[in-house]
């Protein structure tokens, strides 16, 4: 497990520290502040490989380092890696790193990373540690579906071939796939089920797996919706990674890993709200119960922009095992803070929570009108926009933007009708600096 990350002089801020919870870590924050970057660094810390471009020192200059602590299979170890500008590389401790268990990374573009301690970890030759195995398996989105060919054979057959093979064999892998698809479905009534594979092209000799849709058709997975394809690909990679790890462990004569770390970027991407409010709890169940079994230690680090995802965690969030993190700006400086977990009740309340920072869970125009109306009700004429400085203009704008049953109407009706119209402030007394109000009650 990854216990902490400490970045100095690298990334979006001069100093960031994250002490991870042992089970679930959810990271929120505006675009561009460092959520995906943090996941990339976590992947590197666990696997010593980068999923794309390496991290670079902070633009402000100075020494750069990445510190982290890994709780491994048999021991814990702390590391500090420094950036060597001359070599354009990150330097760390020599020798065999700690084995963190099976590490998976689902990227927002549909790509995946898999690091398998049975297939990617260093091996021993006599008394020497030799790193001659593939450093990782990185899947572009197309590789997930069509596979990856290595120098000496197929590394992965891909979803299309494996799904059909598993379905024909009807063995353990297909049972896991079915169970995982069911668990990751948007609802108990609308479950994902494998349909009958079929040929879809004269130019492609492969049988294509299908999904049985609730309207009575079996739809080829390549023609499924973007959200469905994301879930299908996610489920396939989970099953594939675990099954290949299990088989490799058998060949090596060792037990499968009891630790699984899953990094996932924007798990809600392409998903309908009905799916968003189930996906995180379902994912945790799939990894910890269906695949690895209840004896496995599972740690998830997930970045999200969805208030529904946070609302969905309220029944399962455990302060002793889980943590909520937020990237924000303090002036011009990026900060990463752990946010105390407090139930908000619904997605609208999460939208106005500090993790998302909206003042109103509405359109920007409706928020502006309500903020202006509230300023008018408290006689704060300085805060009124120039085009909304009278009661009539405010009332017309609210009628244009708000639904008839909006909860703001009772306040506005009572406050605006209990007093005669008031003229907006037009000047200040230069001597006292106090506002001069026209009209009056």
**Which structural category do the helix and sheet elements fall into?**
alpha+beta
For the biggest β-sheet, the strand order reads 11-8-7-16-17-3-18-19
Give the uncertain stretches in residue-range form. Answer: 426-441
Report the radius of gyration as a whole number of Å: 27 Å
Helical coverage, percent range: 25-40%
> Main beta sheet: strand number and arrangement?
8 strands, mixed
The tally of strands reads 19
The portion of residues forming beta strands comes to 15-25%
Distance from N terminus to C terminus (CA atoms, Å) equals 65 Å
Dominant shape: globular
Run of helices and strands: EEEHEEEEEEEEHEEHHEEHEHEHEEHHHH
Discrete helix count = 11
Average pLDDT over all residues: 86
Describe the secondary structure blueprint for this structure.
Elements: E1 2-10, E2 13-19, E3 24-29, H1 35-47, E4 65-71, E5 76-84, E6 89-91, E7 102-106, E8 112-115, E9 123-125, E10 128-130, E11 137-139, H2 141-146, E12 148-150, E13 153-156, H3 159-169, H4 172-183, E14 210-212, E15 218-220, H5 226-252, E16 259-265, H6 273-291, E17 297-303, H7 307-312, E18 322-330, E19 333-339, H8 347-351, H9 364-377, H10 391-401, H11 409-417
Parallel strand pairs: 3-17, 3-18, 7-16, 16-17
Antiparallel strand pairs: 1-2, 1-4, 4-5, 5-6, 7-8, 8-11, 9-10, 12-13, 14-15, 18-19
């Amino acid at each position: 497990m990854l216990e902490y990350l400490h970045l100095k002089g690298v990334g979006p801020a001069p100093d960031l520290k994250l002490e991870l919870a042992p089970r679930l870590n959810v990271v929120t924050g505006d675009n561009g502040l460092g959520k995906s970057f943090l996941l990339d660094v976590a992947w590197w810390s666990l696997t010593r490989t980068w999923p794309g471009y390496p991290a670079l020192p902070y633009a402000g200059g100075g020494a750069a380092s990445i510190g982290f602590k890994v709780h491994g299979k048999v021991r814990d170890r702390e590391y500090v890696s420094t950036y060597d500008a001359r070599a354009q590389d990150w330097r760390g401790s020599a020798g065999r790193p700690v084995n963190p268990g099976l590490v998976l990374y689902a990227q927002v573009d549909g790509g995946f990373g898999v690091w398998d301690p049975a297939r990617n970890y260093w091996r021993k030759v006599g008394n020497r540690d030799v790193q001659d195995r593939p450093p990782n398996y990185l899947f572009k989105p197309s590789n997930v579906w069509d596979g990856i060919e290595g120098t000496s054979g197929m590394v992965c057959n891909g979803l299309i071939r494996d799904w059909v093979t598993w379905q024909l064999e009807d063995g353990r892998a297909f049972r896991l796939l079915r169970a995982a698809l069911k668990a990751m479905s948007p609802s108990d009534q609308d479950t994902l089920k494998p349909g009958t594979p079929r040929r879809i092209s004269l130019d492609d000799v492969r049988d294509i797996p299908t999904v049985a849709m609730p309207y009575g058709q079996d739809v080829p997975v390549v023609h499924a919706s973007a959200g469905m394809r994301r879930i299908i690909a996610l489920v396939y990679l989970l099953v594939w990674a675990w099954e290949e790890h299990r088989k490799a462990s058998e060949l090596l004569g060792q037990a499968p890993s009891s630790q699984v770390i899953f990094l996932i970027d924007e798990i809600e991407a392409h998903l309908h709200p009905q799916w968003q409010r189930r996906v995180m709890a379902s994912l945790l169940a799939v990894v910890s119960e269906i695949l690895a079994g209840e004896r496995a230690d599972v740690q998830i680090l997930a970045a999200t922009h969805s208030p529904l995802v946070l609302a969905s965690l309220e029944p399962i969030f455990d302060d002793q095992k889980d943590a909520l993190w937020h990237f924000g700006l303090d002036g011009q400086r990026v900060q990463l803070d752990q946010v105390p977990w407090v139930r908000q009740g619904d997605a609208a309340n999460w939208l106005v929570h500090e993790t998302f920072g909206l003042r109103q869970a509405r359109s920007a125009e409706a928020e502006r009108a309500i903020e202006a109306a509230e300023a008018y009700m408290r006689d704060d004429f300085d805060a009124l926009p120039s085009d909304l400085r009278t009661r009539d203009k405010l009332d017309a704008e609210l009628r244009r933007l708000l639904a008839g049953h909006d909860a703001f109407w009772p306040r506005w009706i009572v406050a605006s009708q209990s007093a005669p119209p008031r003229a907006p402030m037009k000047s200040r007394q230069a001597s006292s600096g106090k506002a001069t109000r026209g009209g009056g009650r």
